[in-house]
Amino acid sequence: MRYQNVPWIILLIATLCVQVGLAQDQTVITRIAFGSCANQTKPCPIWEVMAEYRPQLTLLLGDNVYADQLNGRMQPATPERIVAAYAVLQADPGFTQLRSQTQLMATWDDHDYGANDAGGDWVHKQASAQAFHDFLGTPPDADIRQQAGVYQARVFGPPGKRVQVIMLDTRFFRSELPQAETPKPGFRARPYLPQTGPDAQLLGDAQWQWLEQQLRQPAEVRLIGSSIQVLSDEHPFEMWANFPAERERLYDLLRQTEASGVVLLSGDRHLGEISLDPNAVSYPLYDLTASGLNQGYQGWRLPEPNSKRFAALPFGNHFGSIEIDWDANDPLLSLQLRLENGQIGVQAIVPLSVLVAEPRPLPRPAGVLSPAEVLTGEVGQAVVVQMPVRAGRDLAAPRRILLNSQQNYAAESNLTVVVQNTALTGVHEDAKLNRFLNQTVRATGEITLYNGRKQVEVKRPEDLEIVPR
Ligand SMILES: [Fe+2]
Question: 421 C-alpha to center of ligand 1: Å?
Answer without folding.
Answer: 59
